[in-house]
Amino acid sequence: MSTASRMVAASAIGVAALATSRVAGQRLVARSERRLNPVGRRPPYAVSEAALELHRSLLVADLHADSLLWGRDLLVRSDRGSVDVPRLIEGGVALQALSASVRVPRHLNLERNADASDDVTLIALAGGWPPRTWRSPQARALHLAERARRMASASGGRFTLIASRTDLGAYLERRRVTPAMTAGLLTIEGTSPLEGDVTSLDRLADAGYRMLGLAHFVDNEFAGSAHGIAKGGLTGVGRELVRRAEARGVLIDVAHASSATVDDVLAVATGPVVVSHGGLRSAFDSVRNLPDDQIRGIAATGGVVGIGFWPAVTGGADVASIARAIVRAIEVAGVGRVALGSDFDGAVPVPFDATGMPLLTEALMAEGLTPVAIGSVMGGNVFRLLRTTLPHGD
What we know:
Radius of gyration: 19 Å
Oligomer: single chain
Shape: globular
Number of strands: 10
CATH topology: TIM Barrel
């Protein structure tokens, strides 16, 4: 979540809300989400027949959305935010990464944040989360994973959680016959759910999490954040965490990581490294973007760079800005190492919701990319990565 403290600190949710009924609290969360997850233009969206035909042939994947945090039933189409199962299906999204961002500091900014406050507590209380989640980031992550599993079970096959290569293969076989379905991949943003204990990764992996962001907006016991105080690199236990994650089939994500952390990860990783949502400084100079040498380093691991959809990454507020950022990433990393990382529902402005994914296909066509290149960027690269990094399963 790229500017996540805005989701509460700039919202109407406050201490007074915590004493209200569960229904009133959920209404306040809903109002906050509506304000903090703006969509530049609401659907329906119009694209050319050529773009729509190409888009329908693609396996689209997006590496980052914070939709679980807001407490909506994602099986039901909503008029707020960007992601739910009906909109993913309408937009032709075959796989949506759903992130657990379960601890963020108040008054968050991109430059310097201390780990002295936690705004997600307010969402947990106002949203009626179980008492065990009120103080425990790990319990919050497990709660969100359980909510996702319940939604998948209740979806009638429209929504599947992917945790293994077996899951992925079976899902893609079903989707070839019945395209009107989508899938989720559980991911973690920042190491707060570990609660300082590297062995906690096993519990989170057992719950289905398959990607781990080493840092979010504050420095932690394992790694420095680009937005922290010290902005240091991997600690000794951080190196242990990288090894443990690789052994468990959990991808390492360096979105939000400090420059020193990215360098350290590239030095010790033996498998693919991912940027789930971010961009390139050579496309737009922002602390949320990485320099070209680190982008090339990530590509060399066999990982991918998920290009975000919001202005602090792309430098613009329209779909053309996203397409231009993708083209620059292809120039630096190669077409096989670029992916989508929207940050849908992440307290950032985006130009369209999940139903508007064909707009991006059309914008990439306008940039002169071939259908094969578009297919790779829009999702093919992510599916190839998951086929080789997910645990095998039964």
